[in-house]
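Entry 14. Two folds queued back to back today. First construct below, sequence then structure tokens.
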Amino acid sequence: MSDPGGLHIEGDQVVLSGDLTFATVPALETRLNGHNGGTLNTFDLTRVAAFDSAGLALLVVLAARLEGVRPRLIGVSAEVASLLAMGGVSDLFHWEGKPSPP
């Protein structure tokens, strides 16, 4: 069973949890559209359970909103790191710590 994606905002940090997949990302994106994207510059992925290309697209969209500021990623798993590399977008982000094993 999938874990619906969740988020909460702490200052300039978006804490994401659960699944960031095709099934959950549209609702997360809708929730984030109400926030000033220019101030949300850190994305905590520590509690993300599943991640696919929709999750990748969400991170890229959030990064684009920052207009020249390189966002930070925290808690990048090996799965997320692999998709960032395959998507050719690893350099868009500053990573906090090393990717954890799957």
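Second construct, same run, same settings:
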Amino acid sequence: NQSIDHFSGFGIGLGLLFQITDDLLDVEGNSALTGKATGKDSDLGKLTFPSLLGLTESRRLAESLSSLLKSKTKQMPLSNGSKKSLSQLVDYVLYRDH
């Protein structure tokens, strides 16, 4: 079913965007806002987007993925209000500080 594909792809992409943002926050986030010390992933030797791609490319990837997700919402069989809400969710994940 095409609707399932749209929602599934959106969910996978949103999860990936969340992970990229989380990895970026671990490097350059404010520990008072995130509630955890920065650099923890690196200290544990975890592979992260910034460790693999660098900060600049990780940010670019997050922004590109955000744009892609927003365009996907336009194709979903939803009301305009629901599409706008999903687009706002993408922005929240991209620009979150905690």
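Quick look at the second one. Residues 2-28 form the longest helix (27 residues). The chain has one domain: 2-95.
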